[in-house]
Amino acid sequence: MSDAETIQPPDDQRIVDLKQALEERYLSYALSTITQRALPDARDGLKPVHRRILHAMRLLRLDPNQGYKKSARIVGDVIGKFHPHGDQSIYDALVRLAQDFALRYPLVDGQGNFGNIDGDSPAAMRYTESRMTEVATRLLEGITENAIDFKATYDGEDEEPIVLPSNFPNLLANGSTGIAVGMATSVPPHNLVELCNAALKLIHNPAATTEELIHPDPSAPPSMDDLVRGPDFPTGGQLVEGRSSIVHSYETGRGSFRLRAVWNKEDKGRGVYQIVVTQIPYGVPKARLVEKIAELLLAKKLPLLKDVRDESADDIRLVLEPRAGTVDAVILMEQLFKLTELEIRFPLNLNVLDRGTVPRVMSLADALRAWLDHRKIVLVRRSQHRLEQIAGRLEVLEGYIIAYLNLDEVIRIIREEDDAKASLMATFSLTDNQAEAILNMRLRSLRKLEEIELRQEHKNLTTEKGKLEALLASDKRQWGEIAKQVEGLKKAYPLFEADGETLHPLGARRSLFGAVPSADAAEVSEAFIEREPITVVLSEKGWIRAPRGHNAPIDEKGFKTGDRLRLSINCETTDKLLMLTTGGKVYTIGADKLPGGRGQGEPVRIIVDIEEGQDIVDLFVYRPGKTRIIAASNGYGFRVPEDDLIANTRKGKQILNVSLPDEARLIVPGEGDRVAIIGQNRKLLVFPMAQLATMTRGKGVRLQRYKDGGTSDIKAFMRPTASPGPTHPAEPIPSRPRN
User: Fold this and answer.
1) Which residues fall within 8 angstroms of residue 577, CB to CB, at 6 or more apart?
2) Which residue, 109, 315, 402, 633, has fewest beta-carbon neighbours within 10 Å?
3) Matching CATH number, 368-492, of 3.30.420.270, 3.40.50.300, 3.40.640.10, 1.10.268.10
4) Could you read off the pLDDT of 665-678 as tens digits, one per residue?
């Protein structure tokens, strides 16, 4: 087909590049998700759906002192006027605003079943009723005074606010979470008093850093002058985090906070106790938490726990019953913290919309500055709006005063003149607004037109006008007015009631700080293992097994043909075993990981990675705090703490450096003040323990020199104290037999 015969597409069909089209459409979708769904505005801390819910409730006049209305009515108005999405998604957002266990400072006062901390669903929207809380009215304060801009709704028939005036630091006080396209946000809730103090510090010192806004000692008793300590979750909990980590998270806007359940130990007498959990981490459904603990209990993964019960009513009360009164409560809880959601890490990702348009990760100081800058804009706009109102009222008052002074003439003009308005304006030099106000005045108001009252109101408004003009002309005065507003907000939700001792139900800090319990990590690890006695059996060819019980009979039939017993050790399943090989490496084996007593066991080389050509020298039980003497066949050796022998990998840990044909020969207990070493030449040498170097790795020092042969045995002992009486010949030190 020639070029002239090429089929041309119709004019109404447009050919586009697929790659370019996908990029444009995906970018549009991503921006819509980021700005309209997932990320909150840094100024009011709200997403569009929450902002529209509050705006719809304001239009329905659902103030805190008014009656409730059905939630279905609110959801219907939100869908019909502002947010054309699914009713269930809007109702879910409304429900969360009313849950005191989800929001630190709830924005909706709900009546009915709005769900609970167990994770149960709320009742349907036709059964519940809602109205705004006082906090919500603070977010809307000044919305009718030209404080913010409005935009057209999706159908162009109405208007909705772009952002709320927000006389409340909602972003940080209530927090926010969301997942967008390629980014996410996670802001934990905070205490209002602490945020107000940090904001006041920023007002007085705009150059203050994030670290200067953090409390110097988060674990100190709370006071009304506290700076930001850290998150303050509605469900309480104990924050286990150091100040340096908190500062770093708030400086970068990214990090996490370690949050634990709050528990106490209740003594039941006769050496029996139970653990009661009174606060659980934020966002963890209590029913799911109890179910998880019960599953671990049935799976025998919590050997220290006997039972778990949920005795909660209005307050949380989870009862944990230990298996015995001798169980350490701290170790039991550390075990639960490790395996369950009694401990979580709540992420911090302060990724919010800066000025409502650009997503940006902010620091704590940046987030507070964004709110304060917005409050300044709101203050200026409201002041200008009030000035316009005052100017209009002053104009009317001046007209009223003229009418009062010339009342008879005004009445005559109204009665006799055809165009009373024009006559009034011409006779008394009135403006259009003044003449209109006089004509609209009722007759019954004439008796109230007292000159003194009119002039007093005029004077008051003139004074207010001067103050507002001075306020708008001075940046310092504007920040001073904002500081007064923040102080008033702080006093509205204090930490304590008027008596100074009783905690305020909404303002008091709920999440307190605590230190990490000083439980030994080894003890916590052992708590996961059911303790029982075992006998470790090692054969000459390196096969190992662990029958239950101590001093269990060892049958020769339990070994392979040509194999026999090398050694047996009595220990427990919670013990660690240390094994030395001829290459000078020490391996760590958990006694609970050894195969049982049935059969011939398993080769040690399956459990640890012993290098080719090396053999086992000795196997013994690890005892913390003890020491060992390690020696090579050439007479070199040193003293080493057993704590330094622990290897964290299957490949072991190199302790004694040897080179062929020499090899590691002995590792014996190193407790005593004397060391005796005997060589294969049957020569014995005794010297003070103080002369033996203590090392963690190396070749060591020469313990005994040999012309032929090497080390046979070594022993540490205490020199007997001198005592009166007949002397006896010294008994020979028995040498250790070698197989």
Assistant:
1) 536, 569, 571, 588, 589, 590, 591, 619, 620, 621, 622
2) 315
3) 1.10.268.10
4) 888 898 888 888 88
